[in-house]
């Protein structure tokens, strides 16, 4: 009778220790990749890391612009429809403008950008590094006294730190324009008046808060995807499992980070 509770306690302990170990590995990799950013210099004798960073920016940033813009537009339209249906009952349909503007810039814009980039880039990072582990390229780099984290993770990290705020701005603009499309057809307000009212309803803290979130999300997406790739072992099936795990873990930690930052901003900027 006592064997089952003891086994359950041991399982909980192992899971807790595994979670702490994973967070510690993320912190160590984050620090090493952050230190490696200073080696990315376009004026170096062999600026391969800088060229790799530019390639990562194109792949993770430029390639994601259409889907981020479309997702942001659809999200803004959904928010306008849902809010407008309730505000119409109160005779306050004009409040759709600040609802969409603030909701997109504070919350929806950074979050949908992070989810989109996580599905594209986190899985790609994990698969790339995992394949290098399977082909023993990582072992070759270590034999050559090269740090795989600085060589592989730092360019990806810097690339996402640059492109994530830009993609967040794209999502914000697309979502706010979607609200203008709704207001024009529901009330007849011109796009110019809508944009002016939307800008009047926003504060600098709304935009800055969303950009700060995007930088944190970029850090989580990069570190989780790369760490899962480094942990690939055994058969090639592990690459697929690592890719799936990278996306799931990135989604979860992005949501948790968004919750924490939203609560923090609520306390600091009520």
What is this entry, summarized?
By secondary structure, this protein is an all-alpha fold.
Can you walk me through this structure?
It is a single chain. By secondary structure, the chain is an all-alpha fold. It has one domain. It contains 9 helices and no strands. Helix 4 runs antiparallel to helix 9 (237-268) and helix 6 packs across helix 8. The longest helix is centred in the middle third of the chain and has 39 residues, at 96-134. The chain is globular, with a radius of gyration of 22 Å. The chain starts with a helix and ends with a helix. 39% of the residues are buried. The model has no long low-confidence stretch (mean pLDDT 85).
Largest sheet: none
The helix count comes to: 9
How many structural domains in the coordinates? 1
Rg over C-alpha atoms, rounded to the nearest angstrom: 22 Å
For the termini, the CA-CA separation is: 52 Å
Give the mean pLDDT.
85
Uncertain residue segments:
none
DSSP helix fraction:
over 70%
User: Tell me, what's the shape?
Assistant: globular
What is the H/E order?
HHHHHHHHH
Oligomer: single chain
Structural class: mainly alpha
Beta-strand residue fraction: under 5%
> Could you tell me the number of beta strands?
0
């Amino acid at each position: 009778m006592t064997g089952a509770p003891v086994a359950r306690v041991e399982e909980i302990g192992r899971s807790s220790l595994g979670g702490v170990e994973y967070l510690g590995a993320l912190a160590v990799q984050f620090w090493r990749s952050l230190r490696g950013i200073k080696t990315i210099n376009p004026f170096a004798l062999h600026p391969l890391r800088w060229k790799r960073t530019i390639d990562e920016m194109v792949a993770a940033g430029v390639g994601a612009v259409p889907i981020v813009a479309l997702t942001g537009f659809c999200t803004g339209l959904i928010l306008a429809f849902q809010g407008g249906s309730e505000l119409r009952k109160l005779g306050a349909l004009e409040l759709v403008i600040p609802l969409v503007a603030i909701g997109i810039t504070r919350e929806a814009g950074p979050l949908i950008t992070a989810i989109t980039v996580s599905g594209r880039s986190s899985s790609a990072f994990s698969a790339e590094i995992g394949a290098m582990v399977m082909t023993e390229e990582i072992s070759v780099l270590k034999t050559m006294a090269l740090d795989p984290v600085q060589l592989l993770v730092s360019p990806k990290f810097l690339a996402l730190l640059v492109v994530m705020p830009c993609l967040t701005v794209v999502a914000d603009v697309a979502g706010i324009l979607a609200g203008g499309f709704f207001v024009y057809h529901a009330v007849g307000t011109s796009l110019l008046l809508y944009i002016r009212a939307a800008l009047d309803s926003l504060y600098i803290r709304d935009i800055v808060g969303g950009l700060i979130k995007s930088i944190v999300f970029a850090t989580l997406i990069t570190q989780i995807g790369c760490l899962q790739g480094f942990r690939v072992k055994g058969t090639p099936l592990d690459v697929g499992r690592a890719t799936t795990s990278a996306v799931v873990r990135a989604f979860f930690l992005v949501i948790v980070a968004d919750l924490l930052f939203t609560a923090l901003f609520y306390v600091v900027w009520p």
